[in-house]
Amino acid sequence: xxxxxxxxxxxxxxxxxxxxxxxxxxxxxxxxxxxxxxxxxxxxxxxxxxxxxxxxxxxxxxxxxxxxxxxxxxxxxxxxxxxxxxxxxxxxxxxxxxxxxxxxxxxxxxxxxxxxxxxxxxxxxxxxxxxxxxxxxxxxxxxxxxxxxxxxxxxxxxxxxxxxxxxxxxxxxxxxxxxxxxxxxxxxxxxxxxxxxxxxxxxxxxxxxxxxxxxxxxxxxxxxxxxxxxxxxxxxxxxxxxxxxxxxxxxxxxxxxxxxxxxxxxxxxxxxxxxxxxxxxxxxxxxxxxxxxxxxxxxxxxxxxxxxxxxxxxxxxxxxxxxxxxxxxxxxxxxxxxxxxxxxxxxxxxxxxxxxxxxxxxxxxxxxxxxxxxxxxxxxxxxxxxxxxxxxxxxxxxxxxxxxxxxxxxxxxxxxxxxxxxxxxxxxxxxxxxxxxxxxxxxxxxxxxxxxxxxxxxxxxxxxxxxxxxxxxxxxxxxxxxxxxxxxxxxxxxxxxxxxxxxxxxxxxxxxxxxxxxxxxxxxxxxxxxxxxxxxxxxxxxxxxxxxxxxxxxxxxxxxxxxxxxxxxxxxxxxxxxxxxxxxxxxxxxxxxxxxxxxxxxxxxxxxxxxxxxxxxxxxxxxxxxxxxxxxxxxxxxxxx
Length: 641
Description:
Layout: E1 10-14, E2 40-45, E3 51-56, E4 62-66, E5 70-75, E6 78-79, E7 85-86, E8 103-108, H1 112-115, E9 117-123, E10 129-135, E11 145-155, E12 164-169, E13 175-179, E14 201-205, E15 235-238, E16 246-248, E17 255-259, E18 265-271, E19 286-287, E20 290-291, E21 315-318, E22 326-331, E23 344-348, E24 353-359, E25 362-367, E26 375-380, E27 386-390, E28 393-399, E29 404-408, E30 412-416, E31 421-430, E32 436-444, E33 456-461, E34 469-474, E35 485-495, E36 498-499, E37 504-510, E38 525-527, E39 533-540, E40 546-548, E41 550-553, E42 567-571, E43 578-587, H2 588-591, E44 593-600, E45 605-612, E46 618-623, E47 632-639
Parallel strand pairs: 1-46, 29-36, 30-37
Antiparallel strand pairs: 2-28, 3-4, 4-5, 5-6, 5-7, 8-9, 9-10, 10-11, 12-13, 13-14, 14-15, 16-17, 17-18, 18-21, 19-20, 22-23, 23-24, 24-25, 26-27, 27-28, 29-31, 31-34, 32-33, 32-35, 35-37, 38-39, 39-40, 39-45, 41-42, 42-43, 43-44, 44-47, 45-46
């Protein structure tokens, strides 16, 4: 939610991502979707038990990468019998299902149509992880030359698991390589934190330099650790356990990366396009948002849990019967499923499949409607359509049943109480061959009957109609100083459509009065001398549920019996669970300000508004969804009169 300043003097402060004190709990959670998306998988090929990667070369061919060391062409619904590439004589492949060795990834050069280059990551017969370049040198475009191999990189591999495992070209034209931490052992290795090896990392090479001479690449000058004697130049990012698939959004260039957890958490990482390298994703000290706290096997001390040296994932989730071994997919950019446009697809070997969307500065996870057990990999063709490989069967994602959606165009609307009306816009998207309707209703949050008119209406579109619909909700002006008030608008009971992800909206009514006295209510604390400061809170959880904080004033802390308490508690989910402590302290004789102190044990999205009833000044403090709330002390919140 964005914060919009009223016309009078209002200040807004977002709580910085500071470390919590030990008194604030980390909350483990399984993100629950607002609703499940339906989809249809079409089976296109069976008997592909050794296939572990799917890719394309910018044309009509789909390439199936077999762990045994062969690459096959899938074209016009048929897997062609002759392999495009066969390096079985060079690949270590045991055939054992639990082994992760073999040919694991192939990527084609962005200019493949001109140069014929492709790159492969595989486990060599001696157990070493290698990255090599091959090319098509003869007249047959469906046959890469075995003799064209040029070795770019060798990475010693101490175990049979967590190898060099994925290749992708970034929007900068460089080749990115993911590597696991080197394999299982009773305690995970510390290799992800060690700069003198390439395990547990993202590597970055310029493969358009030294094309004809070893090492058949160069190190990009802007790789983040170039010149650092303690870190190898190839390293672009570190702190990963087993990043089984990452992708660059073909439209935005954003990086999405899935990292398989050890025994506790699976995680999804994200970097906006243009973000320089150097990120440390925290393993093995951190596993998602979970503090493992281990330095066993580390040659040097590493940063402690929650250190700012670590880049946090955008989400993590626990392991259970449906969730284990996260598998990253592509960002959907095909044409056949417009509802998935821009969504990052991912899943788990144990069956769960889901998508993640960026919504403003937040990330929203939505489960897909069916499990896909034995999921191994995702892939896409040159048109951006998505394929999955599970238990030896190749599927194509061919559609979703929700071909019509209705939703709001924004998450928050701000109006002055003197505006008389809040005008909320509802949008229809998708198929226009049928009639569509949806119900709209309002729900009070901190705003009540004296602030707006409760409304329940139906909005409808006929066949072929696409124009946005507007719902006008009356808001009332008064002379009472009450601070900004909020109510929620919700869509429900759609006919002929599905609700879009944005199906709720909050309206902020900006108080344009000044002067007056705070009146305590069930949802408003009146703190400080004579109850000068009015404190209210609204929240939103991981399921999209919203609500208000309930106020519990504490005893007065001054010798003045007329004085009102300077502190109070706020609960969200139950009166026996006080999520937040709020204090407003008179420090006028100390530094000329009233101080604000907040401490909470929660990871929900909340916004606290503190109104100075004598001046009309408002301070706003917000905690984003999924972030552990920090304790904060604001020693210059409100000036003394």
